[in-house]
Specification:
77 residues; mainly beta; 5-stranded antiparallel β-sheet; 38% strand
Length: 77
C-alpha cells in the first residue's frame, strides 16, 4: 500500500494495483477522523501504543468496538 498526500485533506492511495482518492477530515476528538471515499464514509479512531496503554489501565475492562481495521504502520525515516 502506498499513500501520498495530494491536497490539504486529500490523499491518493495505491492498494493492490488500484488507485483510490480519499478525504481525511479531523474529528472533534483527538485521534478520530472521518475518511471519505467516492461512495462511502468511515469513522476512524487511531489506536496507537499510547491509546492501547490507556485502554489497558481502564478499570472497567469494557471496550465496545465496531468494525476494526488493524494496520501496522512502520516508521520510515
Amino acid at each position: 500500500m502506498d499513500l501520498v498526500k495530494v491536497g490539504r485533506r486529500d490523499y491518493s492511495v495505491l492498494y493492490k494495483g488500484k488507485s483510490y482518492n480519499i478525504e481525511v477530515v479531523e474529528g472533534r476528538e483527538p485521534k478520530h477522523y472521518m475518511v471519505n471515499t467516492f461512495y462511502f464514509g468511515y469513522d476512524i479512531e487511531v489506536i496507537d501504543a499510547e491509546t492501547r496503554y490507556m485502554q489497558s489501565r481502564d478499570q472497567s475492562g469494557q471496550h465496545t468496538t465496531g468494525s476494526e481495521v488493524r494496520s501496522p504502520c512502520p516508521a520510515k525515516w
